[in-house]
Design goal:
Helix content: over 70%
Main location: membrane
CATH topology: Amino acid/polyamine transporter I
Radius of gyration: 23 Å
Number of strands: 2
Largest sheet: 2 strands, antiparallel
Order of helices and strands: HHHHHHHHHHHHHHHHHHHHHEEHHH
Pfam family, one: CstA
Number of domains: 1
Structural class: mainly alpha
Shape: globular
CATH class: Mainly Alpha
Keywords: Cell membrane, Membrane, Transmembrane, Transmembrane helix
Protein name: Carbon starvation protein A
CATH architecture: Up-down Bundle
Strand order of the largest sheet: 1-2
Subcellular location: Cell membrane
């Protein structure tokens, strides 16, 4: 018997609401961090008009959510449905509540309490100076993989869905205009926002009707254009593009999530046509059997949890937080919102459309080839590629919920592609900016010895340019899998996902040590952070070792050397950081014991 979609959607929403109120507010905010509106945040104490700029609570929520919600919560779950829909949803919910949202909130608050520094610098305060530079090296490597994967995903999306490219080109000038209206005119925030939203809606309608087509090799042309965009956007003041763009993005993305909820509840009485469970080890990565544990973090790179979030939270968000009490919505709430994207906007729609009797007709209306339609009829939705599973599943589900109109379903599928492009673009320039920060922090020791050399190496143009070039070099070439030329993200994705999830484990362990050693929290509240952190570390470390042994040998030479080297170095750095973590924890316990003796 098919499980009704409404029961699954309602259960997810109830769990998220309960987690936010009882775990987020009553335990993390009030008992662990003890947030206070009276403490001045770094946005005020270090205000510089470029990176340290206080932001409105909802503007910052929009920036943070748009920055963390890249392709991960969409592409990863769209791949993971090969296990069936139940296991991916359970991983997303469990990861959100006990690891991801906790990780994001604590990384943000630890940074705020240390003057807006990165989670890597926080690690120095609790694990020693060596930990900072080892952590920085790890984070920088992970960010290069983020850039490589997302350059490739976005270029592929723009090449196959030009309407998403049109929207992106129209969108940026609107965001700049909004920044000017908000920060350089006397127009009220409400009027500025309304003006920008009207222009945005008109831009989306224009983009759907007039897609931007690049003749010839569109994929590689977009790779170069996206690299140039990321570099320029990452060096501009945050108020000029980043804040207003992500604030405006939030309205688009909230609309996207709201439609997903409407879609899931609109088909509440209908059953999910896909299987809840297919196999514990279907062939997913590298064409080899991929066990759910420990490989799932290598597939769902975001949506459940993400180490990239700790870098965003402590890299840009903490520098813009105006009030400590805003952090729960932004940090914990932002992660739950991303989880809603993964579960309600990706997994449920795919599970609904899987073998739906009307989906083949919808594919025909979308202009899909007879070969693709025949493959779907034979194998179900897994016959489609990852991006198609998401965009077409989303469009079909929302269309069915809104009356079954094929025209609406087609429009919603295109809208899903535009939303995906919005997710990815914001991640690209945020990742470039964060890589610039990490690069500059890696060389801060040089400032004391040779100020002139430091100014050259840490110059934002140099630091940003190096990150973009490294990411582009890894993501630019096509790769061959089973005799077929495909975009690089098909190879880079599990390497990016694994290092990203391992970063989450290390950042959560750092936050747990900060809670124990600095905030001096003991008992169940501390263990609720420590135990999930160790579970995550064991899972991801085992997953990466499995990937090196089973999957890496199947890759072509350039990716075997590039992605493989980064993952192997990351594992070495991982064990060094664990050693420093244990050392830091022992020191904290000894200091506590010494104080007890003195009393």
């Amino acid at each position: 018997m098919a499980v009704p979609a409404g029961i699954v959607a309602l259960a997810i929403l109830v769990v998220y609401a309960a987690a936010y109120v009882f775990y987020g507010r009553h335990i993390l905010e009030k008992r662990v961090v003890r947030a206070s509106a009276e403490r001045k945040t770094p946005a005020y104490t270090k205000f510089d008009g470029i990176d340290y700029v206080p932001a409105n609570k909802y503007v910052l929520y929009g920036h943070h959510f748009a920055s963390i919600a890249g392709a991960g919560p969409i592409v990863g779950p769209a791949i993971a449905v090969a296990y069936g829909w139940a296991l991916p949803i359970l991983w997303v919910i469990f990861g959100n509540v006990f690891m991801g949202a906790v990780h994001d909130y604590l990384a943000l608050m630890a940074s705020v309490r240390h003057g807006g520094v990165s989670i890597m610098t926080v690690s120095e305060n609790v694990m020693g100076r060596k930990a900072k530079y080892i952590f920085l090296l790890y984070v920088y490597s992970a960010l290069i993989l983020v850039l490589a994967a997302f350059f490739s995903v976005n270029a592929k999306l723009f090449a196959v869905q030009p309407s998403a490219a049109s929207k992106a080109m129209i969108y940026m000038p609107i965001a700049v205009l909004l920044g000017i209206l908000l920060y350089r005119t006397r127009l009220s925030p409400a009027a500025s926002t309304l003006t920008a939203i009207v222009l945005l809606l008109a831009g989306i309608a224009f983009a759907v009707k007039y897609p931007f087509l690049i003749p010839g090799d569109a994929y590689h042309t977009w790779m170069l254009l996206l690299a140039l965009y990321s570099f320029i956007a990452s060096i501009l003041p945050v108020w000029y593009l980043l804040q207003p763009r992500d604030y405006l993005n939030a309205y688009l993305l909230w609309g996207f999530v709201a439609l997903a909820i409407i879609g899931s509840l609109g088909i509440a009485g209908e059953g999910l046509t896909g299987p809840a469970y297919t196999s514990f080890a279907p062939k997913i990565l590298g064409g080899v059997p991929t066990p759910f544990w420990p490989a799932i973090p290598l597939i769902i790179a975001c949506g459940s949890l993400s180490g990239f979030h700790s870098v965003v939270a402590s890299g840009t968000t903490s520098k813009q937080l105006a009030n400590e009490l805003d952090a729960l919505l932004i940090g914990y709430g932002g992660m739950l919102t991303e989880g809603a994207v993964a579960s309600l906007a990706v997994i449920i729609p795919i599970a609904y459309a899987w073998q739906h009797p009307e989906f083949a007709g919808f594919l025909q209306a979308m202009g899909m080839s007879p070969e693709v339609i025949a493959a779907y009829q034979e194998k179900g939705i897994l016959a489609l590629n990852k991006i198609q599973r998401f965009t077409l599943g989303y469009g079909f589900t929302v269309g069915q919920a809104l009356g079954g109109s094929e025209t609406i379903a087609v429009f919603m599928a295109k809208f899903a592609g535009i939303a995906l492009a919005t997710f990815v673009l914001t991640t690209l320039d945020s990742a470039t900016r964060l890589a610039r920060f990490a690069w500059q922090e890696m060389f801060d020791w040089l400032a004391e010895r040779n100020q002139s050399a430091y100014k050259i190496i840490a110059n934002r143009f140099v630091a940003g340019g190096i990150a973009v070039l490294l990411g582009l070099a890894l993501g630019y070439p096509n790769v061959t899998i089973n005799g077929k030329q495909v975009a690089a993200f098909n190879i880079v994705w599990p390497a990016f996902a694994g290092t990203n999830q391992l970063l989450a484990a290390l950042a959560l362990l750092t936050a747990a040590l900060w809670v124990y050693a600095v905030l001096r929290v003991r008992g169940a509240a501390s263990m609720f952070i420590q135990i999930p952190a160790w579970f995550l570390w064991i899972t991801v470390t085992a997953g990466l070792i499995w990937w090196i042994v089973k999957v890496l040998p199947t890759y072509p030479p350039i990716q075997k050397i590039g992605a493989g080297s980064i993952v192997i170095i990351s594992l070495i750095v991982d064990f060094l950081l664990i050693y420093l973590y244990v050392t830091g924890l022992m020191k904290a316990k000894k200091a506590e014991a010494a104080k007890a003796v003195e009393r």
